[in-house]
Amino acid sequence: MAIWVYQFEKPSKTPSTKKRVEYLESYIDRKAIETTIYEYFQDNPSGEEVTLACFNNIGEQKLRQIAKDIAKDHCNKKFDQIKRDFGLLVPIVMGELFGEDKVLTYRKNNGKECNPISVSLSNWKELRWIGSFTPHKID
Questions:
Q1: What average pLDDT does range 5-24 have in this prediction?
Q2: Spatial CB neighbours of 27, under 8 Å, sequence gap ≥ 6
Q3: DSSP string across 43-108
């Protein structure tokens, strides 16, 4: 079983998570993420798949290119880790845009661990490269 938890109760943005994802902002235009988030909620006010919309907008090729570029710098981040980091960046940006008192994350019953769910390929055929994601929504 899982529950929705406000970001102010269990924030995605902490000093360690901010440090973990900061490299992405030198590769990905933050405005593109913000625009995708705003457009997603404009079209889906009660939607929970904003992370998938962001993955879809950024695209597999862009994230694979980031993995290649980082590998050149002898960093140990692999493609799967980059996907996880990008998935973490989305609720961090959401909290900054809407406030942590408006952003909810789907978490396990303990309220601490995220509760990822499988991607519905019937809705997101182009995201076969994403196996699961953590839902987020705004209140």
A1: 95
A2: 62, 66, 69
A3: H-TT-SBHHHHHHHHH-HHHHHHHHHHHHHTT----HHHHHHHHHHHHHHHHHHHH-TTTEEEEEE
Residue 132, phi then psi, degrees to nearest 5: -150, 165
**Among positive and negative, which fits the CA dihedral 70, 75, 80, 84?**
negative
* Confidence (pLDDT) at 78: 87
Average pLDDT in the 121-125 region? Answer: 92
pLDDT at 59 over 70: yes
- In total, how many domains does the chain have? 1
Residue 74 has pLDDT above 60, yes or no: no
- Compute the C-alpha angle 31/138/133, nearest 5°: 75
8 with 100: CB under 8 angstroms? yes
**Token pair recorded at residue 76:** 């140990």
The SS3 of residue 113 is: coil
107: containing domain: 2-138
75: number of Cβ within 10 Å = 12
